[in-house]
Each structure stands twice: as structure tokens, then as C-alpha cells.
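Figure 2 data, in text form.
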Amino acid sequence: PDMAGLMEIVGQFDKDLEAKFRHLYPSTIFELGSVMVALKKVFTSPSNRKILSARLGETDPHEAYMPRLLNSRKNILVANSLLKNSKMARINLFPFIKLANIELSFILYELSMKLFSLYGNVDKRSLANMLDIQLIFREYHDVKSLWRSFGIFFGRNVVLNFHLMEGTIKMLTKNTAVKDELLRKFPDK
């Protein structure tokens, strides 16, 4: 009787996972792949590499970030392959999705914060606030928002109004848990 009860609990847990999370795997894999491809283009385009090197003051950020990006790519490809091969394989997708997401989140967080901190007129309060915002994005693995933040910071050499920039970055997320955490950390006055 104990074994039957245990199997029933495991079966129910698996049904819950299927209903709540596994149906999101294909869109998550697609999203991670899209961000990875776009970020890879930044590192492989000669003009973007030159801009990024000049902005970061590094000789070649490609060397620092490409191995990590390729590791993320490998995990995305494995997850995508498992997704296409068998419905049962979906059970094993999570570790690959998680590793790819963590790696992309850290890369985008590091690049975004480096670019933001290099704005010539950034004050300590704005830097601390942006650090908190980016940390929340990273902790919740909000790769889309981290990618959009990076795009904004990469595309601008100067920021005239950091308060406005903070508001813009906070509005990037579509994730309700991230929105709630941002509201908790930065309550409206």
C-alpha cells in the first residue's frame, strides 16, 4: 500500500509539472535561442566587437564571453533536440534549459552593468538602483529583460536622465514575479 501511495503522489507531481511548466519549454527554448543568436552576432560582428571593446576598455570581449556563450548554445541545442525527439524526453529538458538560462543571464547582467557603470556622469544612487534592477532580472532569469537592457546600454554612449532610464528599464519586464519584486524594492512614492 505504501508503494502504491508513493506512485500516486509521484504521478500527481508529474501531472502538476506538465500542467504548470513543461508546456512552456518550447517557448522558453526558442526565447533562449533567439537571445543567444542575437548576442552571438554582437560578438562576431567586427563593427560591434570594435564598439564593445572600445566601450568596455577590453582588448577583446569576444574571448572573454564566447566560451560561455557557446556553452549556453550547447545546452539550448541539447534541449531543443530532446524536445523534438520524444515527448518523454521533456522530463529531462529542465537541467539544460536552466543551465542555458543561468549562463545567458550572467553574461547579459555582467555586460549591462559594465556598460552602465561606464557612463561618465553616473551617480552612486543611480548605479546602486540599476544594480538592484539588473540583479532582480538576473535572479529571476528574465533573459528577455536583460537582453533589452543590454541593447539599450550598448546603443547609448550618453545618458542625460538616469531617473528616466531606471523607469524605462523597470518597464521592460513582462514577468509578473519580477514586476512584483521591483515594486517591493522600489515602491511608488
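Caption note: The chain is about 80% helix and 0% strand.
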